[in-house]
Amino acid sequence: SLTNEDASKYAKWLDKRRHIVIPNIVEEVRTGTATDLVRENTVLAVGRLCEQKGFDLLLKAWNIANTTGWNLKIIGEGNDREYLQQLIKDYGISNASLVGFKNNLDSEYASAKVFILSSRYEGLGMVLLEALSHGLACISFDCPAGPKSILSKNNGILVPAGDVNKLAITISELLSDNKRIKKYCSIGPNSIDKYKKANVQNSWLKLIKMVNNNAI
Q1: CATH code, residues 40-190
Q2: What is the pLDDT of residues 122-137, one digit of tens each?
Q3: Which residues in 73-106 are b (16+ Cβ under 10 Å) and which e?
């Protein structure tokens, strides 16, 4: 499975010796990171516009938080577009937008400073890994099952799952602390080595070898 949290769910049914955790691959960014790119005061969120991704929770938190001088861009499409657009209107939010689907997110990651994952649940959270690889400071709900496997105290901020008020406080604190943003931006790309191609490939090769040798 993809995470240790997933593995723990199956512990009562599956022998731990026969349950291997191997994550997905995040592609390495070959251009600059946060230290050498000109970035805007943009907070990015990416995903399908649906209940799972929790963009309604994000907008509620954004409405509460002090976000003066910043813009929130939510990239993606889905059935909840009208609902989310209405939330923006109802809250009177002038610095948040739904920008639709984009095939290539590299330029979006490269021009933002902060990334927020507001999902109610995730498989792993590939967009979180992509944001870290591009050198963004990341905030995420501690939802099942991936974020706690990706973020630690050193490379990002975990917020209790679904806690809108805590998310709002965390957003306010981070956006007002440029030094902290720069610290997370510089740490992010080097904090996800285990998700890089060579390491994930080695894990699969090791597993295949174990199976061939009847060692599992």
Answers
A1: 3.40.50.2000
A2: 988 899 999 999 999 9
A3: bbbbebebbeebeebbeeeeeebbebeeeeeebe
